[in-house]
Amino acid sequence: MKKLGSERSESVKSFLKDIGFYVAGAVLYAASVDIFTAPNNIAPGGLIGVATMVNHLTGLPIGTVIMALNIPIFIMGFFAIGKSYMLKSLFCTVMSSVSIDLLALVVPVYKGEPLLAAIFGGVLSGAGLGLVFIRGSSTGGTDIIARVLGKYKPHITQGKMILIFDFIVICGAAWVYGFEQALFAVVMVYVSTKVIDIVLYGSGDGNVLFIVTGQPDAIKAAVMSSLDRGVTVLKGEGAYSGAQRDVLMCAVAPNEVYKIRVLVKKADPKAFMIVGKADQILGEGFKSIERNEFGEKIQ
Q1: What order do you get walking across the sheet with 244-252 strand by strand?
Q2: Does a structural domain hold residue 291?
Q3: 178 and 92 fall within a common domain
Q4: Domain assignment of residue 288, yes or no
Q5: CA dist., res. 292 & res. 271, Å (int)
Q6: Which of 26, 77, 148, 296 could be joined to 96 by an S-S link, Cβ 3.0–4.6 Å?
Q7: What is the pTM of this model?
Q8: pLDDT tens-digit readout, 8-26
Q9: Cα(12)–Cα(2) distance, integer angstroms
Q10: Are 116 and 150 members of one domain?
Q11: Which range of residues forms the domain containing residue 270?
Q12: Could you report the per-residue pLDDT of 123-161, keeping only the tens digit for each?
């Protein structure tokens, strides 16, 4: 009974955490539209770009247009993807759409340098979408379309599909607003994508070091005692000399690379070291391996 109660408590905490992330994400996303992009005629990709252009041409509220456009997409998604993901996405879509229409009534707008509007709109949009994605949901639109099509066209990545949709919408923005405004939309999409990656994966998780050395024990001891990082020993052989050498592999944070260099120099000045960039490092000492690239919890 105690275990069941604990599991239920964790489930409630996770649910409340999801709701908190979704609400915060929806508000940030709405702020990017109402404050920066829509007032400056910047229509980024996806349904938000379509809704922005419809608003410009007809005066219809952006959030209402987004909801209307999402109706057939959600019907398709419920059959093709499943209820759990779609219900969470429906909540986020409603929240973001309502937030866009309500915030438009109260928030101040920035009408100035379009490049600044594109950059800051991208930052807010990326932060908002990142918070939604990291908890395993979406704001509907092209994300769901790409997932559905991915079942039938698995050789095309979902990222490429979304990029194609965004390109089509931005071409439409060039026709409605002009070519220059379409370029600002490209800037906004680029910034938003980068911020989403930072929210989901961090701003560069770290580096991977490969150290070829004749003093493996001394370097291992120094790294583990000074930095509290694990070291993996790989067996290597020189292609020319045929000599057996140990190759040490170690994952570290970016600010620890220089410290490793100092330790290696002291232990073995003749060591050969390769420093590589790691987009993600998952596991003890770094990020937990618990969610996939869509932010969904791995069972």
Answers
A1: 232-237, 244-252, 206-213, 272-278
A2: no
A3: yes
A4: no
A5: 37
A6: 26
A7: 0.70
A8: 777 778 788 888 999 999 9
A9: 15
A10: yes
A11: 206-278
A12: 999 899 888 888 878 888 888 887 777 777 766 666 677
